[in-house]
Amino acid sequence: MLKNPLSRRKPNRASTEFKGQVVWITGASSGIGEALAVGLAAQGAKLVLSARRKAELERVAMRCLQAGLTEVDVMVLPLDVTDLEAMPEATNTVLDRFSHIDLLVNNAGLSQRSLCKDTDLDVYKKLLDVDVLGQIALTKAVLPHMLQRHSGHISVTASVAGKVGVPNRTGYCAAKHAVMGFFDALRAEVEDDGIKVSTIVPGFINTAIAHNALAANGEAYGKDDAYIEGGMDVDEAAQVIIRGLARGTREIPVGKGKEMSALWVKRISPEAVFRITRRLR
Ligand code: NDP
């Protein structure tokens, strides 16, 4: 008789897979990055927290201390991922402090809420700068050190929007499809050198992503939307992601709504997905 693989899971003990591991998280000042930081802090990871807003990073660092870390284990490193030239120096700063990096989580990101016909070209440039080039530049700065050690793990927070095109997000979908392609290709290059690459594929997760998204004129959208507000709880999402990263899973889907079924329907029947997405306008 076939056994249910879930029944072979170990009892739910506090996980410690990341204890002592050096993890660098971008976009750590809110949302998914913040929840990952606190979840990994509870496991005893050594954390580097990056984003632009230093005060928010310090708030998250405080939560990591409350979760069990000591001050020597948490580094706040403000970084704008569009500052491509800053990446080598930022990487050296982390290496000076912790000597190596076990896991890089390229999580910083920016979304969009505007129709293509209304959207300034500068909005597309900004989305590609933050969501694609920033991740590539930081990855290229960290990769040589991982290759030298024949060890390391690089991940990126992509999106279901990196697999399926949806209205009001032409630039965001372009950016997330680009990172899916980049990191899948990178994996094929470096896996035999001992480097793991994971793409994280969230559906709707309840964070400030819609609020912070770019509107047609490049200003912040400034509103929440029902899809995001009804999305998966961010701490629950972080636990799914942390479990996937601990297992070295190459592609980590995370979400609880109907949007997750688009991942497999797109493979079986792209036409069905195209018919559904035009109704989402
Ligand atoms: P948030 O808006 O809460 O977080 C975005 C994070 O990115 C913030 O920490 C922000 O920090 C940081 N960030 C934005 N621009 C820059 C920049 N130029 N340089 C450095 N950091 C930057 O949203 P989420 O937590 O939801 O988003 C995290 C990731 O998850 C993103 O990549 C997003 O695309 C992805 N995602 C989210 C989904 C969701 O439903 N929530 C679904 C699919 C994917 P700061 O402003 O301090 O710089």
Molecular structure report:
Mean pLDDT is 95; it is low at 1-12. Helix 1 packs across helix 8 and helix 4 (121-149) runs parallel beside helix 5 (170-190). The longest helix is centred in the middle third of the chain and has 29 residues, at 121-149. The protein contains ten helices and seven strands. Helix content is 44%, strand content 12%. Strands 3-2-1-4-5-6-7 form a seven-stranded parallel β-sheet, with helices on both faces. The chain has one domain: 3-Layer(aba) Sandwich (Rossmann fold). The protein is globular and about 50 Å long. Helix 1 links the parallel strand 1 (22-26) and strand 2 (46-50). It has helices at 31-42, 54-66, 87-98, 121-149, 170-190, 209-212, 226-229, 234-247, 262-268, 270-277, and strands at 22-26, 46-50, 74-76, 103-106, 152-157, 195-202, 251-254. It is an alpha/beta fold and 281 residues long. The structure holds NADPH dihydro-nicotinamide-adenine-dinucleotide phosphate. Residues 26-27, 29-33, 51-53, 56, 79-82, 107-111, 130, 157, 159, 202, 204-205, 207-209, 212, 228, 231 line the site of NADPH dihydro-nicotinamide-adenine-dinucleotide phosphate.
Give the tags.
alpha/beta, Rossmann fold, 10 helices, binds NADPH dihydro-nicotinamide-adenine-dinucleotide phosphate
The succession of helices and strands, N to C, reads EHEHEHEHEHEHHHEHH
What's the mean pLDDT score? 95
Please tell me the CATH architecture by its name.
Answer: 3-Layer(aba) Sandwich
* Biggest sheet descriptor: 7 strands, parallel
CATH topology title: Rossmann fold
Q: Portion of residues in helices?
A: 40-55%
Q: Tell me the number of helical segments per DSSP (H or I, 4 or more residues long).
A: 10
Any idea what the CATH superfamily is called?
Answer: NAD(P)-binding Rossmann-like Domain
